[in-house]
Each structure stands twice: as structure tokens, then as C-alpha cells.
Amino acid sequence: MQPIIQVNQLTKAYANKKALNGISFQIHKGEIFGFLGPSGSGKTTTVKILTSQLLHTSGDVRVFGNPIAQSRHAHYLGRIGILTDNSGLYERLSIYDNLELFCKLYGIPIQRIEEVLTEVNLAAEQRTLVKQLSKGMKQRVTLARAILHKPELLFLDEPTSALDPVNRQHIHEALRKLNEAGTTIFLTTHDMEEAESLCGRIAFINGGKIEAIDTPQQLRLNHSDNTITLTTRQGRVTVERDDSGAARIAELIRKGELLAIHSNEPTLGDIFVQLTGRNLQ
Amino acid sequence: MTFSMVRFQAIVKKEWKDAVKNPQILLLAALPILFALVFEGMADNRLDIISYPALLALSMTGAFTQSTMVCEEKEKHTLRVLMLSPATVAEILLGKSLLTALLTLVVMIISMIIVGFPVYHFAYLALMLLFSLVMFLSFGTIIGLLSRTVSESSIIGLPVLLIFVMGPFFAPDLGGDALVKIVDYLPTQQFMHALSALTEDGGFNEIKWNLLNIAVWTAASLVVCLVTYNKRRFDK
Ligand SMILES: Nc1ncnc2c1ncn2[C@@H]1O[C@H](COP(=O)(O)OP(=O)(O)O)[C@@H](O)[C@H]1O
Ligand SMILES: [Mg+2]
């Protein structure tokens, strides 16, 4: 099957700076695909190019099979949802009035407003003016607007950066539900836990380059140091994942001293440091 | 390209809800009427003074309101969201302009009545005012799209509009042939010429070149407006 997003050797140079140095990746229908990287690594630049807000310098970029430059039709725009730092709200209007406008623009029933506000935990606030909302609440309204029309493909640039853990959890639930209903999601984040809990596949991006792409599990296995930590009545010991380790575990079990076993897989953040020498923050 | 009445109406409705809560726009609408009240009685049948409130309505209520509204959409990043929705250029720009146009018309007519604007050849007058309205709304849109913040839009907008509005007013007194010649090509100056011709019982033949000038300015401003809009669809 043809990928929904197909990017080949994409580069982007701003006036005096290279932001993307030849990145390539594909996203298939039904995926939640994440870009994980620190600030300044090129995440927003990539999202803006894919959503035709920014022209790229070179490389091949296809969305729904069409080159991005030709994708800018009402038809294409109706199929995608976008949340970036460029996604503003009408401050003097209420949440409801903001969403009502976009219901009309996308040709969807007004009843959807209630539904989508429930998903972002704002149903009680729908008559509140946007200018009276906190930053996190605004981010949730913006997200509600991005998913209002149940887009086939959703772009989210750091969707939960301004949110507290409870609301982040809530948004993650809503995104999973949307994904189960068929929306493909491309999201960026610098939060390894977010990437791990949401994404089927993750690309590590740093300095405009992709350093690795894989499932979170595979990434961790590939970079595991093959040791196992045992918690015993005497304390913790670390053993290798080999015959000597197996013998040791068997012995501890026989003596009734083994309390717990943990395989030592690195966090995505650890792997990121291993690969790039940089922290995610 | 299709034009959706539903989308157009939705944008107009949003614009209306937004404008009534925006004191700046209400002020811009009130100013020309205040000026008209001041000028009333001073006019002495001087056409330039009689026309002044109408030109003010076009520039203040028309162009300035439009540039304020467009620029605020840019500053707050809502214009980009509209551009990335299925709404078309025509729906967005016409939707944004309709309210300003109606407001300007009302303010202009009230101001004209207050100063006792002479109406000869209603059809020609209406045609010229209509062209001017489109032109000033285009100016406003261009200024709004080019400036980064609302305050920057006033800084860019003021000199431009001063030239158009005050040009005809002061040109005769400023002297200097070159300047007078340049001012003479301004659509507002042509509007004055046409107006005085009409007052002296002139007809189409007397004002056809003035009409042409105004029509060309209107068309040119529309084209520049569309080109600017399309450029603003992309980040740099
Ligand atoms: N408009 C711009 N002009 C010049 N440089 C830019 C511009 N936008 C971003 N950059 C640079 O490009 C690089 C990537 O930026 P960005 O894509 O915003 O990163 P991220 O979203 O991962 O934080 C950064 O070094 C940033 O400084
Ligand atoms: Mg960013």
C-alpha cells in the first residue's frame, strides 16, 4: 500500500541556516508516527513543509501520493488537521463561536462541537471567551479545532507542551480514540514519555538529521546492554544475559532469595544521548 | 474555484461578532462623523472641504478598519488557520471585507448628509464611490498583510492614506509643478475633478478620464492585494 506521507532527501535552508539536512521517512495509514528531538532540531520546520505552510529547498515530499506543492487544494486541506504554534484562536470570541466557524468552513454538523469539547475536557467552558483561557486551555481548544472534522491525517506539533499531566493524559486518550477510528497521526515532541506512550514508530531527529527510526520497543532492544538486574534479599545485583547469568538466577530462586527481575533497557532519552551526544531537553 | 455561501456567511458572522467587541473599530467608525460635524458650516461650498468627510470615511473606516482587522488576524495567527481550512481566497477576503464595506458605506453616507454633499448625477457618483470603496479596502488589506503587528500597520498606513486623502486638500496650496502633477494622478484628486465637473452639470464626456483613472487604480490595487495575499500563504 502507498504510504500516506513519503519524504525523500528533504532539505530546508532558511536565509542563513540549514534546518533540515536530507531527511527521509514514510508514514503509513493508521500509524501514530512521532518525531522526537530537542528544541531546534527541525520538528516544526518539517511539519510546516508537510502542511504546505513553508516551501522546501530540495527533496521529494508527497502527501496522499501527491507532491506537496500541488496538494494545496481545498480538497487536500479538508482531509488534514493541523496544530502548530501558528494555530491561533479568535480571542474576543467564545470557544463555541470559534469552533462554530470551523464547523461551517469544513461543512460538518454543529453537534460535533459538544463531542470534541468533551474529548479535550472543556465542555463546561464552551461559552467562555478565549482571551480568558489559560495557555493550556487554549492549546486544548486548538487541538479540538484540529480534530473537529475527523481528519484522515493529523499533524500535531508539540500538542501537549503547555499541559499538566492530567490533561495530557486526557488528550492522549482522545488521540488514541481518533487513531482507532482511522486517523493517521504525525506528531512531534521533545517528551520521551509522550513519544513512547503514543507512537507506534518514532524518528529521532537532531540537527536536521534523522538518527534512527523504529518502534519504541525495537529501539530499546537494539540499544540494550544485555544485562539483567536482580533484586535479592541481600540487595541488587546485575548479571549478564548469558549462561552464567542464568545459573545465578536459578541459584537465587532455589535458595528462595530472588525478589524481582528487571531487564535493563535504556529509556528513549538514554538512547537519544547515545546516538547524538545530546539531551532531549 | 467554487464559492460557498455557507463558508462566506460563517466568516461574515465571525467578523461581526468580533468587530462589535473591538473598541478600536468603533472609534474608527465614529471619527469621520465627528469630522463631518466639525466641517459642517465651514464648507462654504468649497468642494474639497465638502468631500473631505467622505474621503475620511473611505480611509479611516474603510482602509484602517480593514488593515487593523487583517493585521490582527495575522498577528494572532488566525489568518493562517483560515488559509489552511477549505475556505477559498474569495470567501476569506470577501467575507472579511463585507462588514467593513457596509460600515464604511453607512459612515460615508451619514458624513455626506451632515456636510451637505451635493448629489448631481447619482449614478456616476455612486459608481465612483463604489470604485473608491473597493480600492481603499484593497489598500487596507495590503497594509494589513504587509505589517507584522497592528501598531506597525498604523505606522505604515498613516503616511500612505495621508497622501491619498490630504493630497487633494493641500496640493493647490503647496505649489511646485512636479508635486501638483503627481497629486493629479491620485484617484482621490481625480474624484475631486470629476465631482466639480458633475457639479457644473458635466456628463460622461467630462468625467470619462477621471473615471478611467479611478477604475485603473481600483483594478491595480485589487491585483496587488491578491498577489500580496498569496505571498503571505507561506512562511519564510
Ligand atoms: N524562520 C526562520 N528563519 C531562520 N531560521 C529558522 C527559522 N525557523 C526556524 N529556524 C531554525 O531552524 C532550526 C530548526 O527549527 P525548528 O524546526 O523550529 O525546530 P524545532 O521545532 O525542532 O524546535 C533551528 O535552528 C531554528 O533556529
Ligand atoms: Mg518547534
Automatic annotation (TrEMBL), chain A:
Query: ABC transporter domain spans which residues?
Result: 5-232
GO CC annotation: what is one?
plasma membrane
Annotated localization: Cell membrane
Q: Which UniProt keywords apply?
A: ATP-binding, Cell membrane, Membrane, Nucleotide-binding, Translocase, Transport
Q: Which GO terms describe its molecular function?
A: ATP binding; ATP hydrolysis activity
Question: PROSITE patterns attached here?
Answer: ABC_TRANSPORTER_1 (PS00211), ABC_TRANSPORTER_2 (PS50893)
Output this protein's name: ABC transporter ATP-binding protein
- Pfam families documented for this protein: ABC_tran (PF00005)
Organism source for this protein? Paenibacillus nanensis
Superkingdom of the source species: Bacteria
TrEMBL record, chain B:
TM ranges are 25-43, 49-71, 92-117, 123-146, 153-171, 211-229
Question: Which keywords does this chain's UniProt record carry?
Answer: Membrane, Transmembrane, Transmembrane helix
Q: Name one GO molecular function term.
A: ABC-type transporter activity
Q: Which residues form the ABC-2 type transporter transmembrane domain?
A: 52-224
Localized where? Membrane
Membrane association type: Multi-pass membrane protein
Per the record, GO CC terms? membrane
Q: What is this protein called?
A: ABC transporter permease
